[in-house]
């Protein structure tokens, strides 16, 4: 760990690397890992649980008065009324992990009075460490990163994630993909939203959109994006998005273009836009547009 980094970020890096080492050991014999199903197509493993415990123990050993919001254990640990809350996804991309596909990461963010101040996204299979502290920039390992400079949508690579849970509005999502795909150079899906956001921050891709995500999927990645010079918010471009279950990010030009294309699919779109989406989906034999926002469920990015 570096003495030039903020002490809280250093502790988060220590926790992420410890969890990553545990994940890497388990990946050597992934077929022996015990798996449970939280709901259809939504998995949790003993590795998720062990990694989360390692992270929580490391953080609370250094800061016992801080709060915890973790994917598997919620707010069971830490102080319940602290202004400092660690937001943890111990293994974002569990479905990839259990299939032996090395696209997953550890995500840790620290919110202070509701604002994300420090972020770590660690890819253990590649030993890539993405970090950010508010006002100090974003980094991949020891290199400063910036979002891409591409301005034309036709040149851009955009990442999304496909709905996978029962009740998800698959038809609406496919309508969004259908709107975006002809405008860009390519659309990709990785299975790890936190890593997707880190890749946008590093300029590896130019934009990102996804529905159904929880705060632990996007908290760390959101700070990486803004500290790398990008924008992140909901589909209408509002920055207060962390618990709204829709997320969009990109360099400023791409972000603005995505708002134009995808804003009508937002839960916060105007009534006329929503009606137009519902009519288009009905004509295509699809489902209705999403209802008004509801409280986020406890689920993970698969």
From TrEMBL:
InterPro entries referenced in this protein's UniProt entry, alphabetically: IMPase (IPR033942), Inositol_monoP_metal-BS (IPR020583), Inositol_monophosphatase-like (IPR000760), Inositol_monophosphatase_CS (IPR020550), Inositol_monophosphatase_SuhB (IPR022337)
Region (Disordered): 279-302
Upper lineage: Bacteria, Pseudomonadati, Pseudomonadota, Betaproteobacteria, Burkholderiales
UniProt keywords, alphabetically: Hydrolase, Magnesium, Metal-binding
Stated name of the protein: Inositol-1-monophosphatase
UniProt cross-references to Pfam families, sorted A to Z: Inositol_P
Cofactor: Mg(2+)
Catalyzed reaction equations: a myo-inositol phosphate + H2O = myo-inositol + phosphate
A single MF term (Gene Ontology): inositol monophosphate 1-phosphatase activity
Superkingdom of this protein's organism: Bacteria
Organism: Comamonas antarctica
Binding positions for Mg(2+) per the UniProt entry: 71, 89, 91-92, 217
Family: Belongs to the inositol monophosphatase superfamily.
Biased composition (Low complexity): 291-302
Documented EC number(s): 3.1.3.25
